[in-house]
């Protein structure tokens, strides 16, 4: 469900749909996450999250409004590290939410994830600009 037609523009609505489905079938997901199959689900979420974050980072680094000197600073290794770091955080929060009874609404979790991703995106851009001014 989350991978179908997933884009930078709609990732948050896809996450909301996933969390809504998880909450609706809460017992199934909580049981699955405790089972050995839970790691498969976590790996799947990680892969999907990393893909969309890599796409977002690529989009940011190729944005024509961004200083052209920033692109060389954003190496593939740095892009991958950033995407993986953020992916572990997003997936960890989703798993924690599910394992602890899904007390917050899917909308609250989605909003929190979106705020973190947007904040990290702004931090990453400002960090790379700072690195350029040091050089």
Radius of gyration: 16 Å
What's the mean pLDDT score?
80
Overall structural class, as computed from helix and strand content, comes to mainly alpha
Question: N-to-C terminal Cα separation, in Å?
Answer: 45 Å
Q: Just name the CATH architecture.
A: Orthogonal Bundle
**Beta-strand percent range:** under 5%
Could you describe the largest sheet, including whether it forms a barrel? none
How many distinct folded domains?
1
Number of strands: 0
Number of helices: 6
Poorly predicted runs are none
What name is given to the CATH topology?
Answer: Tetracycline Repressor, domain 2
CATH class descriptor: Mainly Alpha
Features:
Tetracycline Repressor, domain 2, single chain, 78% helix, 135 residues, mainly alpha
Write structural notes for this entry.
It is built from six helices and no strands. The protein has 135 residues and is mainly alpha-helical. Helix 1 packs antiparallel against helix 6 and helix 2 crosses helix 3.
Describe the structure in brief.
The chain has 135 residues and is mainly alpha-helical. It has helices at 11-24, 26-34, 37-61, 70-73, 76-99, 106-134. Helix 2 packs across helix 3 and helix 3 (37-61) crosses helix 5.
């Amino acid at each position: 469900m989350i991978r179908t037609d997933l884009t930078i523009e709609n990732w948050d609505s896809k996450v909301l749909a996933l969390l809504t489905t998880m909450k609706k079938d809460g017992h199934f997901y909580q049981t699955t996450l405790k089972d050995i199959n839970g790691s498969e689900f976590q790996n799947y979420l990680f892969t999907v999250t990393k893909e969309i974050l890599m796409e977002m980072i690529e989009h940011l680094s190729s944005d024509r409004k961004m200083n052209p000197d920033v692109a060389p600073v954003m190496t593939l290794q740095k892009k991958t590290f950033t995407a993986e770091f953020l992916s572990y955080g997003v997936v960890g929060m989703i798993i924690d939410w599910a394992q602890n009874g899904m007390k917050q609404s899917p909308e609250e979790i989605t909003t929190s994830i979106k705020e973190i991703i947007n904040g990290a995106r702004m931090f990453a851009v400002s960090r790379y600009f700072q690195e350029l001014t040091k050089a």
